[in-house]
Write a structure and sequence with these properties.
The structure is a homodimer. By secondary structure, chain A is α/β, with parallel strands linked by helices. Helix content of chain A is 36%, strand content 21%. Chain A contains 23 helices and 30 strands. A 7-stranded mixed beta sheet of chain A has the order 9-8-11-10-12-13-14, sandwiched between helices. In chain A, helix 3 runs parallel beside helix 4 (107-122) and helix 6 packs parallel to helix 7 (227-234). The longest helix of chain A has 18 residues, at 391-408. The interface between A and B is large, with 95 and 95 residues.
Chain lengths: 686, 686
């Protein structure tokens, strides 16, 4: 698939719409390619010029000397179809359409965009854009862009392993400029605009295949397809996304900006967790994570040791570790004893380890503490935090941190809350030592969390949880009743109450008697969705009342289901529905409260090992399962089995349905699906 | 009170423990004061030197030529008491004890600290510290500190209106160094260490009185007293706090760092909301807010207009505005029409207003759009957001933003997501134009939220909500029963069910009959806390069953309360308890769920106008009051009245109690306190 690599390593670039006119956008790519020393062939295309900036120009790309690896189309929208035809005819494999005037302007532009994509696909040409700012491969100096980023006389760069991909050209190149300024050494920047043919995620996947790539950052406004996201995560390269449109207002603004359908943000969140992809909060967060991705070491997990010279920094780090769901490494007995002998009495030998400003008079203190901590198997990653330290002291600290990171192969992130003028060489020295640096403990912790998430992202490659019985299960009938659904669920290994359908009062009495003399009776009426509200459910029915209750329920127009009365427990809502991103499982605690308090977790199906546990852990209401106010703890593993069996059953159901298990009651021992409803919705993947 | 101003404007500074020895901490303040051109008298004190760095030295501060406005004590802890005595004898009004070895080291150090404070107080000397790094007044070049911040040959500063106060010296001076580097022009930096006598909040109050002060930033680990915080807010100067110890682990680390009791973080959050003080998330956030405080204009509220050249930036801004609880300004019909005529078709004339990169070819586009927006009364603050723009384009934008900010007196915050190398003059030009600048839309929005909060902070001066009946109410008896408590509550204007206590079965039957033939019966047994669990509550009791139920409840050993059966509604938990910060009112929705999901809001008493409404709005469970799943909306104003009447009743109750109203049921019309319990706890303000 990787003909997309022409975007960053083309040996020849045609600029269609090139011009010499000062200030014109069509001049910039030619100017940039020349000034920044691109070594391949630059092919300006303009029917009204024979020479542009000293290079021969061609009336059409058909007439440019081949092969042309990459074309950058910058002509007005109405002339794009002809330019695309020319590229096809010239055998160009990839073209970037920078021009605006397509789907982002409305229906007419969308039609033009569809037309252009159709012509390209028919001709075997891949298209990036339209409505984008182009692509850059720093290593080969492929500056196929008109971004003002390169307008300065000279932008110094040293290509590294970080890739930046953005649907918004302005934000993509803005982030890239900040990455350059902050020493993150981006290797690639690609803007994909309207994602009409090649999508941003496809570009990310192609970049992940580049051996030099160490991490990927992206700004996205829409994620129409998560399969590519899963494949991206499976590449093993760490990924972070800044996805806008989280709020309703932002989502409206995104829809108006891109013309694309809004992504269900909660579903996307769930998918990203499954795939070990971090969702960045903001531009700085994205860049901080990129900085961590650039470091040479990877943690095995999320257990952090903090070594600080400032008690305050230690506290801020501990707060951030809790907030990010990481763990303060517990430290072994041996390490604690060792630290007790090293750390001054007015410091703290407990994690966060405060070695105090005494380090200024005794520099070995830092070395000895770091060795003790790095050697400890309970420590996956170390954060070294200090504030105002002047040049020579910073240098000593950098040496100590760098040594221990390399000696133990564990990442060390440095939080330095002090101005660069205090230690002007510090940023370069930290970079040289492979130590990612952050201006506060919280930002270091947040980047550590992204590293830990990326490691967990091996999850993208974990196989799906198999069905308990290995069987393939049928889809329910469109009008499946509660007993039919429950039989289907039971067949797939989900626990349902012992029940039987009855059609006569005497059978009802017998069924209640057979269930210990007290049971639940439910009306089974196709199309009756709100049974409880309609008076269709009676609990605690004794044998002597069974006939009377049967008569009342049967009067609603159907049969009656008699079920064993379930013990007390914690009620959960569980559901599966099809979405444009795939079938999604949702779980929440506490019935009506889960909805009202918006406390639900989602994952795409199929669930993988660990997904069900992590969904439950994500719920604030998970505390209800632990037992509150003296109630016994509920059988959470039984709930996990319910979710996994449900995943195996429904993962492949075709689009256009909603299955609600509401409630699933989690008992002290086991769980029971007490109710089930199945609704057809309009297909959403068609 | 403001003899604390010596900390930043002393005309003479004694350095007790001064030395010439290179590298020694005691050399630094003398060195800094000389090198940075302090114009007052520098008085080194050292019994073993007659001259230090060219200045005459004195064996004791008693022998230094007076008056001495400020002493900086840097001798070892065991010699601090004598130094304090010397300061008292010399009539020094304020001393900073930089020395460590006090409460932060354990019981012995705490005793020494208490001894030192006692001596100072007896002698009329105010003490800052111990265990701090000193104080700086940039305007008068009072560098009474040994912070490495001034070790560099020269740190350029231009004193502005921002004050930085910190219990942690390292973080305080770290933040100050970043403030200097980022052009925020701090005017004051004070570290207060252990807060043994003068507290950080007292320093903040003193700084708020300085006419040049435009805003205050603080890092705190403990807030033992919120009265001073309220007085600080009432000063009208905007304040932001970075308070660490939010998590359990952070709180433990803070307790071990400062030896102080942990502040109840949730109570502090509530108090800060009441007082219009922003709680910063992190160091960058604190500095961003400081940047906004430094701007010349203040918003009237939280309605934001976003004007951007990048659709992506607009979406990110909209997301952040939603997250921060601000409002995208709706814009008037007139403004919308005007913008429709200005903004290109492929941009957005709706807020966020995307004027697109067309601004590069038509610079008047920005001016015209900004005028339309700034003129609109629905706009309190404008965020101008752009990404990569090169020098001259940035200059034009800065001019346009600055003009409109000054013309309309509305704050304009600039989000520029691009490297400084693209527009090297931009930071200075933005600063000169009074335009606070941020690297992303979200950070600008967050700072805008702090400005809006500070304006709402007039709330600190709003009078308390008065008791509905103007009366002063008694405290309950220690063993107050439910009927006694409910009489007390009813007397204070809280709605309780119509009830009566009965002692005979026939009275019970009569009471039920009088209440419409169905009522609630409750056992009233002093000391029986969990009535429901003990079988002491019967609902839906009809007259024919009343005698039987009465007998069962009376058998529990007390009387029986007969109450009118309450209509359906939304159940809330409401409580008041004394805390070290004062009496605190708590409200949550959904009974057991409020606790399990940790969905409660707190405020210090007395409530002020608007507090009750804002507490309810803060609850995720507030949705339950709006009516979910087709249930009718509940009478939220009635709940507000309950909270306000409860505030008036309990604000002055002495420490050592807990009052639980659980549940308060909010009906379609009105509300009812269904249960009440009062518990004495051990006094926590003694």
């Amino acid at each position: 698939m990787n003909n997309l690599s022409a975007l960053w390593s083309a040996s020849s670039v045609a600029v269609i719409g090139a011009t010499e006119r000062p200030g014109a956008l069509g001049r910039k790519p030619v100017d940039y390619l020349i000034r920044y020393g691109y070594q391949g062939r630059i092919l300006p295309v303009n029917p009204r010029s024979s020479q542009i900036l000293g290079l021969p120009a061609y009336p059409s790309v058909r007439e440019a000397p081949g092969p042309v690896d990459l074309a950058l189309i910058m002509v007005a929208a109405d002339r794009v179809p002809a330019a695309v035809d020319d590229c096809v005819a010239a055998g160009v494999p990839v073209a970037i359409i920078a021009s605006s005037g397509f789907a982002e302007t409305g229906a007419e532009g969308a039609a033009l965009q569809a037309e252009v994509v159709a012509r390209a696909r028919a001709g075997g040409l891949r298209l990036v854009g339209p409505n984008c700012i182009g692509a850059v491969g720093f290593r080969h100096r492929v500056l196929a862009t008109f971004s003002p980023l390169f307008m300065a006389e000279s932008v110094p760069f040293e290509p590294g392993g970080l890739a930046v991909v953005s649907q918004s050209g302005a934000l993509g190149f803005g982030v890239a400029s900040l990455a350059l300024e902050r020493g993150l050494r981006p290797g690639w920047v690609v803007s994909t605009g309207n994602d009409a043919d090649v999508t941003a995620i496809e570009v990310l996947r192609a970049l992940a295949e580049e051996p030099e790539c160490t991490g990927l950052l992206a700004y996205l406004e829409t994620v129409p397809d998560v399969t590519a996201l899963r494949e991206l995560a499976a590449s093993g390269k760490p990924v972070a996304l800044l996805k806008s449109g989280r709020s309703a207002a932002g989502s409206r603004a995104a829809a108006s900006h891109t013309g694309a359908l809004a992504t269900d943000d909660r579903v996307l969140d769930g998918a990203l967790r499954q795939y070990g992809i971090t969702r960045a909060d903001d531009v700085d967060d994205l860049l901080d994570i990129g900085r961590a991705f650039s470091g040479p070491h990877r943690p095995r997990g999320g257990r952090i040791a903090v070594v600080t010279t400032s008690g305050g920094s230690g506290i801020l780090a501990a707060d951030a570790i809790a907030e990010q769901g990481l763990t303060l490494a517990p430290l072994s007995e041996e390490t604690r004893r060792e630290l007790d002998g090293i750390v001054p009495a007015f410091g703290s030998a407990d994690n966060p380890i405060d070695i105090t400003a005494t380090v200024l008079s005794d520099p070995t203190l830092l070395d000895r503490s770091l060795d003790a901590v790095a050697r400890d198997d309970t420590v996956d990653l170390i954060i070294g935090a200090f504030c105002v330290m002047a040049g020579p002291d910073v240098d000593k600290a950098v040496t100590a941190f760098g040594r221990v990171a390399d000696a133990y192969g564990k990442p060390v992130l440095v939080a330095r809350t002090g101005a660069d003028f205090l230690a002007p060489d510090a940023p370069a020295r930290l970079r040289a030592a492979g130590l990612p640096e952050f201006p506060s403990p919280a930002r270091a912790v947040r980047a550590a969390a992204a590293l830990a998430t990326a490691v967990s992202g091996a999850g993208a490659a974990v196989p799906a949880v198999p069905a308990p019985d290995g069987a393939v299960h049928a889809v329910p009938a469109a009008d499946a009743t509660e007993p039919a659904l429950k039989r289907l669920l039971a067949g797939a290994g989900l626990p349902v109450p012992d029940g039987t359908s009855v059609t006569t009062a005497s059978d009802a009495v017998a069924a209640v008697t057979a269930r210990g003399g007290v049971a639940v009776l439910k009306a089974v009426v196709p199309g009756l969705l709100h049974k409880t509200e309609a008076g269709g459910v009676a609990v605690g029915v004794t044998a002597d009342r069974a006939a009377e209750v049967f008569a009342r329920l049967a009067a609603l127009g159907g049969t009656v289901l008699v079920e064993a009365q379930a013990p007390d427990g914690v009620e959960m809502i569980v559901g599966v529905r099809s979405t444009p991103l795939g079938n999604v499982l949702t779980v929440g605690a506490g019935g009506i409260f889960a909805e009202a308090l918006d406390d639900v977790a989602c994952r795409l199906l199929p669930l993988r090992a660990g997904d069900a546990e992590s969904m439950i852990a994500e719920l604030r209401g998970a505390r209800l399962l632990d037992g509150v106010r003296g109630r016994p703890a509920a059988d959470t593993p039984a709930l996990v089995r319910v979710l996994e069996a449900l995943s195996a059953l429904t993962a492949d159901w075709p689009a256009g349905f909603e299955l609600d298990l509401n409630p699933v009651r989690v008992l002290a021992d086991g769980a029971l699906v007490l109710d089930a409803a199945y609704t057809l919705t309009k297909g959403d993947r068609a």
